[in-house]
Structures are given as structure tokens and as C-alpha cells.
Amino acid sequence: MGSHDILNKIREGYGTSITRADIPADNRLLVFVRPDSVKSLANYLFRDLDARYCVGIGIDDRPYSGDFLVVHDFAFDKGNVLFSLIVPVPASNPRIPCISDAIPGANWSEREMRDLVGITAEGCPNPKRLVLPDGWPENLHPLRKDVSWNHVPEDFDDTKTYPFDDPPPGTTVVPFGPFHPTLDEPSHFRLYVEGEFVRGCEYRGFMVHRGIEKLADSVMTYNEIPMLAERICGICGCVHSVTYAQAIEQAAAIQPTPRAEFIRTIMLEIERLHSHALWVGLASHILGFDTLFMQSFRIREPIMWLAEKITGNRKTYALCLIGGVRWDITPDLGTEIRQVLDQLEKEWKGIFDAVKGDRNIMARSKGIGVADKTLVKDFSLLGPVARAAGVNIDVRRDHPYAAYDKVEFSVITQGGGDVWSRIVVRVLEVFESIKIIRQCLEKMPEGPIQAEPTAELPAGRIGTSSVEAPRGEAHHFAITGEGNRPRRWRVRAPTYQNLQGIPAMIKDQRLADMTISLGSIDPCFSCTDRMEIVDLQTGKVRIWNQEEVLRSTLKVKRRRS
Amino acid sequence: MKGLLTAFFSSLINLILVLLVAPLFDGLTRKVTAVVQSRKGPPVTQSYMDLMKLLIKEDIEVGESPVMQRFSALLSFAAILSVALLIPMGTSAPLSGYADSILLIYLLTLAGISILLAGLAAGSTYSLVGMSREMMGMMTLEPLMAIAIILSATHVGSLRLDAVFGGAVYGGSHFFWSSILILGVVTFALQAFVGRMPFDVTEAETEIMEGPLVEYSGPKLALFKFTRMAKMFLYTALFLALFVPRIATGYYVVDLIVFLAEQAVLVLLVTVIAATHARYRIDQVVRYYVILFILALLALLLAVVE
Amino acid sequence: MYLLSKIRETALSLRAGRVTLTYPVDPRPVPERFRGRPVFHPEKCVGCAGCANNCPAREILIADPCQEMRVVMYLGRRCSYCGRCADLCPEKAITMSHEYENASPKITDIRQNLEIWMGTCQRCGRCFKDAGPLDQLMMKGYRFDDLSAELWVYRSRAYLDRESVVKDIDIELE
Fold this sequence. Notes:
Number of strands of chain C: 5
CATH superfamily of the largest domain in chain A: Cytochrome-c3 Hydrogenase, chain B
Largest sheet of chain A: 5 strands, mixed
Radius of gyration of chain A: 24 Å
Strand order of the largest sheet of chain A: 1-2-5-4-3
Shape of chain C: elongated
CATH topology of the largest domain in chain A: Cytochrome-c3 Hydrogenase, chain B
CATH topology of chain C: Alpha-Beta Plaits
Strand content of chain A: 15-25%
CATH architecture of the largest domain in chain A: Orthogonal Bundle
Radius of gyration of chain C: 24 Å
CATH class of chain C: Alpha Beta
Helix content of chain A: 25-40%
Shape of chain A: globular
Distance between the termini of chain C: 73 Å
Number of helices of chain C: 4
Largest interface: A-B, 36 and 37 residues
Largest sheet of chain C: 3 strands, antiparallel
Number of domains of chain A: 2
Number of strands of chain A: 19
Strand content of chain C: 5-15%
Strand order of the largest sheet of chain C: 2-3-5
Number of domains of chain C: 1
Oligomer: heterotrimer
CATH architecture of chain C: 2-Layer Sandwich
Structural class of chain C: alpha+beta
Helix content of chain C: 10-25%
């Protein structure tokens, strides 16, 4: 089903609601509709046409068209189409019917829209704040064009706290995070625990929100943003810089050079190798199996050295520019890559053989953190989490980008949907990545590595791009703009969707399995400094602000020994 | 009078042995774990340095009840050192004329209870969770050692320490099935007694932030850490005392060296198993202990019958 | 089989040997393309400010104290070691060295200050550069001011304010 077929199908039912439709490329479709038909059209796309929900974006387009824009991105995995449903919302009344009652995975997108741009989704089932801190003043929406990027609100209320739900009867609250040995970055899960079993949880995150999207549309320029994008994630930096470059290239109709596409593919797969090796180590560490943790990291180290040889840094490759890449792969480097891959394959086979029969690990991971196909569909869970549940989606095959249409590889799926299946999927994906890199090295054409744009990029064009990060699909949406920078850039990392599925995954599981369930989605989030006191006797919850924390540390009795 | 003096000096030697050698065994454990993990690891003397460093650190007291916290730290130290006086190391136990095996069982349990007190006194969510896990483990695990000692007492007909140890569990010339069974049970439980993987569900845990010890720092933490090291030393010593016949060459120093060498072998075995296993969850652990407990009871029954 | 997998895992580990490196006791060399601290060579710099214009972290600042002098200051606090400045420099005056042990208690240790004497056009007396005013308009990010006097005053993207533009540290402007 290409773009035209989908458009015709939609026209059958909703022809009168469509105000405009654009087909910028064979695999893209932009449909503009009026706000009143959003709900039913979104439902139709999600349920009847079986599209996957990607992200919802709020855009302040008032300086250009006078309205706000709400964009809901869907992906048709079987038809290789990325679909954007664009809804102009009048500036005087920024409201739009919510779609998260039909599409649960849209919940965070709608909350973020309201926090950052001020567009309210009417009827939203969970209208609490998502991104902004609790003390942030009410009507200040940072992503609006009239708010500057370095604005500090004077009426920030330090004493305001987050209105957590009441725990269900019979349960106690166990706060998980922000400080916890297993979490790399702070986030807060409020677990409702009955005995040893978790009955529910509430998540409060976004504690280290860095305002990257605001920086990109106010201060940075097109070629500077990849350096910013690769710092979005601590492991999959290359993914975000490639996705961003692809989104802008698609918007401005720039074709990167063939050699650059192959180099991007190689670096993306190298990143997947080191990310999966790291994850296997991390999961073992959470399970208490430190030996496997040390071994995975030892096996992974040559990949980091390889990346350093090619790009100059172990992780922040600074790889992409609009139109190409910055580092070339010389024949010597090619030989080196092959050697490292051979060694890696041998050692990784050893790990796989050792782990696949290990009942000790299986006892801790089978049947834990289960996400079945319905949960995957409802919350748009991505990547290994979805593939471990048997849902056969992979952006590299479904929406080919860079050089993925020129190489052959298989998509690994398992049936269990639990942590053990995710372990198996990630271990086997390493072998596929090695296969892809080898094919790329053979098929890579000679030529320049950058097609530098010689004219200024046209403004107001919409571009979307999806890339398979090690954790799932990373989806970027961009509108090109004036002043050599985009008007709006929206980054949707895969963990954004996967985290929404966590409360369902940990329900009715033991408290001890909370960490490995969380670790199995391979979370990549970031955070801050909040501390919550739960008084077990009275059941009261108090949140300390900065002064109270400071005072309490001074008050503590010190005993000189 | 002579008996008193011998007991006094023998006790001193035992105490010095525990204080000096337990951290050495811990260092050995860390070194072997590092080798299995393909790294260099800390020097063998690292545990001494860790304890010294903790002892001179500032003692910050946060928790529900600081008085109880101090008490539990001292209790664990005192209990474990008292146990050292009741276990033969190379020769017979120092206080064998003044105590019997019931006291030994009691003191071992006391050392375990001090951890429970520690968790309770700290009062934080995670320490309480850790404490409840420790309690579940203790209830099913501690009786195993008690049953082994009582089995030995049944064979020999006396509860005196020097009668119970020294291979009495094998009951002399007669062959007993119960002895083999209890040997098997305690061997499989040794890993759990010393609190290493896969059974360290209460201690150093990534899941509940160290469990009962989460609010302890400085000297109190040093005491608890030492208790853990000493437990490794003493449980292996107990195992040797119960099940491995003593080689009496007549020279105390030779006996001692042989004893320490046997202990080192056991420590090595425990470490290798610990390094190659993932941690089990508390319910799986308790299930495992319960099976062992039933087998131990069976062994005791057999011993009474045989 | 359970025991077999444990034995396999142990064999795997022992075969690898000990991989701990002796850094920092022994130095650790880095590969050729490694992007360490950028080093500015004043004798090659022509004061085009391309580096300042394209630094994603805005850590290269330009000040024109007078007609003939341009000060290029690399602050290096938030430098992301991306190497764009080195890529863009037309005179190859910036090289990404191999130094990565750059931690220091003093912020001025990493700062590099270049004072560039600019040549002046013999006819109009302004500092000259290759591109004409129209080309200037086309180049990314350059702005002009003082239209009334029709003076094309070159001002780079990031400029050093006398009133400290950075609030957290004191930059000695001398």
C-alpha cells in the first residue's frame, strides 16, 4: 500500500474533512484535516488500517500561518509509508480532541503538547504534567515562539509538588528512584506494593529535560544541530544525528552521496553492536551475575576502539552533516573493521552458547516483565521489546533508509514477550549487525562523502524520518525554516514509547523483578534531584524541596569516632 | 587453674586468627573473582585497608533509632567473636570445657539476628524490605546447622563441644546414612550460610540498595563488613570441624597451617561458585532452603532411628 | 545443560586472561583521528571567524577592539570536541590535538587567546576579506548593522561584550 493507496482509502471515508494532502515522496504522506475529525480519523488509521502510532507533535506556527499545528505521525509498516496527520488549531482556542482514549500510546505526546506548547487535548484521560517541573508557572509554554530560549520565569514556585494518585487500598508505596543503583539516570517510579507484589505504579520523569528542541529552533543552525542531536542519548548518539540529517534531507529534497549512505549504515550498525553488548552486561549486572557483565564489556571494548579509530571518539562520532558524513572509511580501516568483527563474532558465539542453556539466568528472566501483542499495539512499543513479543517490525526493513535496501539481513523475533526473549533477541541481533557491516564494506561505492548544499534550504518544508535505534524506532519530525535553522524539530526516542508500557509490564510481578523488567526495555532516559518521604506509619507523603534537604543534612547528628 | 590459663591463651589465639585471617580470605575471594572476570582485581590486602578506612570515617547517624543501630553493630561483632571462641581451629575449641553446642547454636543465631536488628533500626523502606528477606532466609536456613550439630550429638550421646566435633558426626566405626545425608545438605547450604551468590539476596544487592545495611556508614559499617568476612571464616571452620577428620600431628603450628589450607580450599570453591552464578530471587531461595531443611530433618530422624 | 553452561562461561573468562590496562600509570596512546583539545595557531589565522560562526557550543568568541585588531578567544568550557572549527578553517590554523587529559582547576588553563592583526584596504581603510558585500549576505549567519551610514561593519555571530556575557565565571578581557 503506497501513499496514493492510503490517501484514496482515507478519502473514501473522510474526504470532506481533508483540507489538503501532500505526497512529497513515495513513502511519505501529509494530510491536513480539521480538528473535529481528528479523533475518528486517528481511530480509523490505528484500528482499521493497522497503522502504528509514532508521535504527536505540537507546533507554534503563529508567526507563519497564524495557527498552532498538531501533527500526529503514524507509520504503515507493511506499506513503507510514514504518514503525518496535520491539524491546524486556531491560536485563539488551542484545543483539540484527544486521541489517547483510543490510542493509549499517544498519552505522553498529548501531555507534552500541553506542557510545552499549550495545546490542550480535550478529554485526555491523564491530564497531569509530564515535562515541566511542578513549580513552573501555569501559562508559560516554553516551545512557543514568543518565549525566548533563555527565559527564566520569576514566579517559579519551589514548594509545589506533583499530585500523585492515591495508592490503591491495601498497598504501600515504595519509591523507586531517583537515586537507585540500577538506574543510570534519575527517574521516579512510585510503586504500589502489596507484600512482595507490585500492584501498580506511577511514573514521574523528565527531570533532566535539557530543552534541546528549543535550542535547535532558536539558536543552532542546520549543521550544528547534529552535534547536539548526538548528545541526546548516551549510547545511541549516531542514531539521532542520522535521523535528524535524514529528516532535513527529506524536507529539502537533498540526496546524500551513495558512499555517505553506506558509511552511515556502517556506523549505525557499529553502534548497535556496542549498545547490545552493553545491554547484555547491564542485564547480567542487574541479575547479580557480575561475571557475564565483565565479559560482555571486555568483548565490547574493541568496538569502541574501532569507533575511535574511524571517527575520533568512542561515542560522540560527530558524524553527520546535511548531505553526507564527515569521516571516510579508508581501505586500512576496512581491514581493521573486518578483523574486529571476526574476533567479536567468535567471542559472541561463545557467550550465546554459554547463556542459552543457563537455567540460572532463565529462572530470573522467564515470565518476567511480559508485554504481549496487545500491549505492543496499544502503546506502540518498539524495537526488541516488540520483536520479543512476536511482532515483526523493524524500521530497517519496513522503511528502508540509508543503505539498508541494498543489504540483506533477517529480523529476529521471539515469542515469549518476557525478559528472556528480549535477551535472546538482542544477542542474536548482534550477529545480524555483523552480517550487515560485512556486506556494506563489500558493496560500498567510491565517491565523495558529502553533497554539500550550495543554496539556502527552502523554508516551511516538512520532513520526517525513522531510524532503527538499538532500542527501537527513533522518529524525528522537522519543519525547515529561516535563518539557517529549522522552525520545529521534534525528537521521539524509542524509550519514550517503551516507558509508557512499563506500568502494565510490572503489574502483579514481584518487587525484586522490577529492576530487570525496567532494564529489559533498555531505558535511555535522563533526570534530577527530587526526594520523597513516605511515612509508613501515617501513610502521609511529603516531598522535600531543596532547602529542606539542605537543612536536614546539617541537622543530622555527627558522631566523631 | 591450668585449664583456665590454657583456655585463656587458646581463646586469644582464636580471636587473633579470626581478626587477622578473615579479611585475608575476603581478599582472596575478591582476587579469585577478578581472575574469573578477566581483570586484575584489588590486591589481596585490600580488605584490611577497607576496614581501616571505614573505621576512621565520620559516623553519620541517620535512621529510625540510632541507639539500636549502634547496639546492633556491636552485637554482631560481639556475637561473631564469641562464636570464634567455640570453634576448634587446629586444636580443640578454647572454651570447650566451659560451653556446649547449644551455646554455639545460640550465638550463631544471635549473629544473624543482629542483621535483622540493623535493618529494623534503620527504618528505611529498603532496609525493611531487606530485613524481611533476611528473616525469611534465616528461618529456614539457620536450623540446618543446628540440626547438623544435634545429629552429631545424637551419634556421640553428648552435647559437649569437643565430643560433637572431630568427626563425631560419622559416629565412629559404624556407617550411618544420616551422616552422608547431612554432609550433602550442609555442603549444598554452605554457599547460603556465608551469604554469597546465588544466595546473597539480602546483602550487596542492586535491587534494594544493600538491604539492611543501607543506612550504615563509617565504623558501624566496618563492624558489619567484618562480621560478613568472619562468617565466611567461621562457617568454613565449622564445616571442617564437623565433617573433616582432624589431622593431629601433635605440633600445633602444623595443625594450624593444615587447617588454614583446608579452609582456603573451601573458600576457593565458594568463590568460584559465587562468580559463576546469578542471584536468585527470595522466593526461589526460600524454596531451595525448605527442601534442604526437609532433608536435614530426615537425616536427624534417621540418626535417631539408626 | 545447566552445569555445562556454567563451565562454558568460566572457560570463556579464563581464556581471555586479564585485560586490565595499567593506565594512568602508563600512558595510553590514541588513534590518528582522535579529536582531542583543539589547538589554535595564531600565525596561520586570518581572522575570518568561520570557527566562531560554526561552533555548536558557542565557545569561540570574537571581539574587535579596534580597526586593525581582532581577538579570537577559545574558551573551551563547553567545547564538545566536535572538530567543526578545524574542518572549516580555510588556513588549517586549527588542529585537533591528541590531548584528552584536560582537566584543570583553573578555567584559564584551557583558554586560548589569539590577537590577530588585520590588514587594511588601501582605498577604504577597512579590514578586507575576499568576499564582497553581496557574497557576505549569502554566507550563513553574517549580519550587518548601521544601514543609515551604509557602513558594512563585520560582526561575527558571537561577540564578546564588555559587560560579561557569561554570568558564571570571570573572563579576564585583558
